[in-house]
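Q: I'm teaching a short session on how sequence maps to structure, and I want students to see two examples side by side rather than one. Could you give me a first protein with its sequence written out and its structure tokens following it? Keep the formatting plain so it prints cleanly on a handout.
A: Of course. Example one:
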Amino acid sequence: MLTCALCAAALALPTFVGRAAVDETRLKPDRAEGATYRSSPQEQTFLDELERDTFRFFWEATPSGSGLTPDRAPGSDVSSIAGVGFALTSYVVGVERGYVTRTEAAARTLATLDTLLDAAQGPEAEGVAGYHGFFYHFVDGQHGLRSDRHSELSTIDTALLMAGVLSAQTYFDRDDEAERAIRLLSDRLYRQVEWTWAYSQRHAPLLSLGWSPEEGFIDVDWRGYNEAMLLYVLALGSPTHPIDPRAWEEWTRTYRWESSYGPPHVTFGPLFGHQYSHVWIDFRGIQDGYMRARQSDYFTNSVRATYANRAYCVANPGRWNGYGELVWGLTASDGPLDGDGSPVGPTPFRSYWARGVTPHGQSDDGTIAPTAAGGSVPFAPEIAIPTLLHFREQFGDRLYGQYGFRDAFNLSHPGRSAEAQGWFDDQYLAIDQGPILLMIENYRTGFLWNLLKKSPYVRAGLERAGFTGGWLDTPPPPAEVSVAQPTAPKLDAPPPHTEVSVAQPTAPKLDAPAPHAEVETVAQPTAPKLDAPPPHAEVETVAQPTAPK
């Protein structure tokens, strides 16, 4: 079974069932929003161990030759391209934490970038890694070629990959052969993504979920709110194929601002949609037009979403075993049902599924995923850290192994042996391990947030989306390494025959929002300096590698 957060996001809302009534007066955060939480010495030791063990997943499970991280472990030779993005980001954390040397991390990073650039691109159904700069969701772990006909060319998974690529480009800033090559190859990968090619066929400049040779474009658009906030920022910030800035306004027009088990916020049920973009971008104190109108920001929004998720589990309208103040966390994850399909017959249990809750219903089968709390540590450390510590102490090696937390557990499932009640997964998933490691690091040091603030592409994307305030009001530091910037491209417009016509959802009665701010084309950002690599690092059009048998 393959992990598909894209599918989970696309299908999350239609699977919700009716919501039970609950007293929301007791579901307020335990602290004032923005207050500082100081973890105890025991918790700090636990976080040290959890970061180290989770990092080992990316370092040890990833083949050093190709650098293509498996979708899951143990037992998978299929790579998730989003998982590769998390892996590239984890390596720089590993250097900072002393888990690996800078030289080791640079070598692994360079091997990964070489694999991605060497793999052929084209419209063919087989023997290619991607098309128009995008990559297939799942690729084989040796050569990076499309795994099978069910793997789509994925816009969001390519964005998650590019976030890791830009992390590597920004971090490896030394003037030596390996790090110069990393900067050059990273820049090539990002610049070759033709974001405008992926415009929705009906609602441009919104972006399509993806494309396949067999079916063409997926007839579903990325509309809010979910993890695609990162996709739009990176597509807007491109120096070569930036999408129309109107895309951000259309994206935010599809938000739902409403109350769900607590204060109002932009809702999306599974917690991963409130976490992924925040792995790389510090949204504290910066606002787009939508959030300015509501006197909030996306970080605060994720704080409220985290508390709402926990509050639902405490209320436990489904009466699932174990739910409570220290057992909560609904998101996309594995489940106790074997296979890839929906349940057959009376069983309530699912396999991989996007679990979560909104005012319109819940998608819940009693399955809890540690990544839900782990990826929320910066938003609500006072509830997330004690929950993670409880998971390890309460469930021991049934849930916690050599690579940290396994993906999920379900205490309502009858289990698979007479001795043990409940189901515990035996798998580690790349896209769930990543937020645990990286968001804990952001909570402790802000390292990744501060790193990506230096990326001119991330800053340009945010500014083109209309973000202002906070760290964006501080001029970027001068680039220590830079290269001549090509002429800024014209912002590609949607096809002339396509009209932007996204229906506005009915909004709850709240403070009237301000009119959407017009987003003007901003000046082209200064590119990081990329000194020419040594001759062997040149990447030209290469022959297509032999497809694995």
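Q: Perfect. Now a second example for contrast.
A: Example two:
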Amino acid sequence: MKYLIILIFVSINVNANESLRLAELAEQQILEGNPTNGILLALEALPKNIYKPDKAYVVEAEIQLLNGLLQLHEYYENFDWFSTALDSENKYDVSFYTGNYRWRQALANQDRCVAYVEQHFNASEGRRDSYTMVIVSYESSQKVRKWAKSYVKNIARTFGIRKYLGRGILVGGYNGRGNGNLKYLNMPAVLLESLFATNPRHAKWIKNEVNQLQLAFILFKSIKKYFPQGGRICFSVGHKYKYYPRNDRGAHVYGGGRESEYAEIILKQAQSLIEYKLLQGYFVPPLIKKLQDFVKSNLDLPALEFDEALYDKTSELLLALSSQQLIDYAREIIPRCSFTEEQRVRFALPKLKSQRLIESGEKLARRGRIKSATRKFKQARKLDHCLQFNPEEKARWIAAQVEIYNAQKLAEKMKMPAARAKFKKAMRIYSKFRINPDKETRRIAADELIKQGEKFAEAGKIETALIKFQTAITINVNLNFDPHEKVRKLAIKPLLRKGMYAIRQANMKQALIINVKTHVVDPKGLYSENFWSSLCWYGSLYGHAKSVMNACTKTVELKSENESYRDSRGLARALTGDFKGAIADFEFYMKHAKLKHKLVKREQWLSQLREGINPFTETVIQGLLGK
């Protein structure tokens, strides 16, 4: 008996210490301007039922719960722009899409969404990048681009940052990266890179609840403006919920947290605005009216005895509640009824039983045990009212993604019949997933061949790359490109990089070897003219004027009106004794030059050349080299 009492005492003490830790975290979150996090942490610290406690009660946690509710009321009561959401009837519903990006797009097409939004945050190696941007696909319409520009304009104005390259939109993403997230969609679509996760100032906004509401409201307002007819809006959380890699959560946010965690919070808030839901229910402006109603019903006062003048302030209303009533009210109005998975890890909170059930269900679904997985998901939903999904549909979609992934890998290995069979099986498992198995298999196989071809072309294996591209076009007849031209463009890039590096290092021997190769790969000079012009100028200054003359002539043949190309050739001609040709080139430069401060030198060179004197002495050459 003695040991049992000691054990109970130790357990209660440990429990109280954990509640105090959570109360401290709640205080920290509230001070940082995140009342919802603060309230959730305080609720974690407090027992659900004061009269039948499941953990120790600590007054510090109740104080932070009260502080969090006061701050939450202040935020929502001061944002009068919420009232704009009530100026017409609700015409929208929101769906979130999971899986790899290609298949999210297929499901969104199946659901005939009117618009598709994927939320990301930008990242860079440095901390100074500070702009807002939206990515749209190469095929995007003018309406989509106007929508994107409008969103960027409001973000830039609200947060006082610049728009990317002055326009704010990036068509096709970074060298195509980002385009794949949108290119298969049949509806207007945008990929938002609202702020920089790696910028300390932006990270503070990303984590702050008021700024999160601003981001959500700007998105909501843009949807309402460009899609007034209503309909289904598709949301996609960038990086998260992919089948592979499953642990991708995007960039690290400065100071803690991951990109997808905050992207999801903002999209959930935007969903509440779009669907007219806010604070665990509906818009009830002003919020104090909802609190007054709660106090009326819980204090059990007759209507005539409730003096609204006495209870006209949030603080007075909240202080009128008992500890249990305060907990109940917080659970009723909290904007998010639970932490995200990432937040639970960050705050060192134990994994919920519902989350363990979901993880177990997901494992079962990936093994094809759909009925068992569905049972687990149903149990999880019973335990956690925050979970909003169809258990069987979730199990079937996870199981289908396994088959889709296998189909993709088979198609990449050119095992076409087996890949088609896997796609068909996926469609049988999850009826909402509808694609053309043959077309999809051919697309994946062709894309894989193109990737292989690109690698071979960049490695200089021209013939192998050409075969890969030609085979890809045979497999997927929808591809429209010239294999020879694609090989040429890819093969020349590494040569030009090496060539420019050799010039910067004054390694003219290596630069001249690369010059010969560029003439073989790119005989028309469609991609090599800048390299040839640099080689012409610096090769001449480093004593190889005769060797680089071919490059000089080629650049002028390509663009005879370019004064810089004529200037470089003039130098090479003078150094090889062709004074007449040099005079013609420098005279052309004098007539067309945009940089007027360079004319004085050219005038001096022309005077000497006309007298038959080579103006390019060793001293002049060293000066031109900046030595």
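Q: What should students look for in example two?
A: Point them to this: Confidence is low (pLDDT under 50) at residues 1-12, 279-285, 303-311. Also worth mentioning: The chain has five domains: 16-85+288-337, 91-275, 353-372+388-434, 440-481, 503-624.
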